[in-house]
Amino acid sequence: MPPLSRTTTPTIEISVINESTVLADNDVAPVVAALQKQVSDDFYPVWGTNAELKIVSKGAQPPSGSWWLVLLDDSDQANALGYHDMTTEGLPIGKVFAASDLKVGTSWTVTASHELLEMLGDPNINLTVFVQNTNTAGMLYAYEVCDACEDDSLGYRIDNVLVSDFVYPAWFESFRGEGTTQFDRMNKLHNPFQLAVGGYIGIFNVTTGSGWTQKTDQRATNLLHRGAVGTRRERRTIPHDQWVASLPQRKIASNAQKYREQLETIQQRREAA
Questions:
Q1: Who's near 267: CB < 8 A, 6+ residues apart?
Q2: Distance (Å, whole) CA 192 – CA 155
Q3: Exposed site from 121, 126, 174, 239, fewest CB < 10 Å?
Q4: Is residue 265 part of a domain?
Q5: How many Å apart are CA 122 and CA 18, to the nearest integer?
Q6: Model's pTM, two decimal places?
Q7: What is the rounded distance in angstroms from the CA atom of residue 147 to the CA atom of residue 168?
Q8: How many domains does the chain have?
Q9: pLDDT tens-place string over residues 161-173
Q10: pLDDT of residue 1
Q11: Could you tell me if residue 198 is inside a domain?
């Protein structure tokens, strides 16, 4: 049987699960519709990977075989609720920490777009590009499609929903000359491996063996680049045999309810103090 080409790759089913306390389902629905358009209209023609996004109703089970895009408050909640490194079936999972975005003034919709596209571009968080500098030295670049141009200011709107810019395959091709082709969706980048303001990329120096580090644009520093627990940046540093599957959805829903009750208790104590 011949291998699947990009044009015949099956459409991936992605379950969008909202367990955030700061996002109502009414907030999520129009964003998912915009993300669907971004994937099918903008990402798929360039990268050859398409997806169908479906919101999972409260209390319902994600369809078997689907990947998950989970909306959470922060990385602490990700641990508490059991959203770990992969779904219960061992399939890819992406996490969006909406409360963390709101706290630092960044857009959760851009983060959702970012995580979705990067999950589609490198679902197993193990793809890299090797740039050999000399016979004995070289650098691995993480195959992350949004990091280089992820700042909110570089995003674009679909039906008034702000989504993330993303790089094209040419961005990872070192032989490309300046301005010879399109390197990202918004045409902000003009060279391979160029970083926009606020951009970054994971690198691994194979000569020094120093592990994964972040190469950042020197004009701006974003604390979110550090990679909180549960993010793709954190997971890339962990061997796959140490990855942990998520809890079953029923257990997650139960834990989520307990989490919300704890938040309400804390708020009541603060108001009473």
A1: none
A2: 19
A3: 239
A4: no
A5: 23
A6: 0.88
A7: 12
A8: 1
A9: 999 999 999 999 9
A10: 44
A11: yes
